[in-house]
Amino acid sequence: DHERDRLVLRGATPPFDRLAGGISLPRGAGIAGWVATHQCAAVVPDKFADDRYTYLPELKGEQFTSLVSVPMLSGPDRLVGVLNVHTRERRDFSDADVASLQAIANLVAPAIENAQLHRRLTQREHARERFAERLIAAQESERRRLSREIHDGISQRIVSLSYHLTAGAEAIGTD
Predict the structure, then answer these.
(1) Using one digit for the tens of pLDDT, what is the confidence trace for 66-115?
(2) How buried is 156 (Cβ within 10 angstroms: 0-12 exposed, 13-18 middle, 19+ buried)?
(3) In contact, 40 and 73? CB cutoff 8 Å
(4) Burial class of 153 by CB neighbour count within 10 A (0 to 12, 13 to 18, 19+)
(5) CB within 8 A of 30, min separation 6: which ones?
(6) Single pTM value for the model
(7) How far is it, in rounded angstroms, from Cα 109 to Cα 103?
């Protein structure tokens, strides 16, 4: 979330997928935050021994030991997110593992960015539609108000003036 400078969990494997959108960290917090800030991979064979690790009970981090975290870049310095891979057993991720995950992250990043842009465009279109609906409703309300004013105000004055002119004409006579 670039606007609030936070990392938000947007996707995960079951059963953690139900937490998508509900967990966030300030950018820079945790290992994923460090990766987002520095835009380089972090290989962590034992996350409990890493000072950057932030425990989130909802994610049941105690069940996982090792992780590799790579930035998801859609272009130079265009961070879309962070891809994390965890293992239950301790694992020393190889350079080839990291390169493969980075390649996957960089392939997925433009698709995520396009989806985000599409979502923002859709939100703006809906906002524009709501604005147009409110504008039309305001115009109709003003038309009704003017109609009532013409009917109740000007029309009554014209009728009253007509009666007065008729009465005046009758009072004057023909001479």
Answers:
(1) 889 899 888 777 888 888 888 888 888 999 998 999 998 888 888 888 88
(2) exposed
(3) no
(4) exposed
(5) 7, 52, 53, 54
(6) 0.65
(7) 10
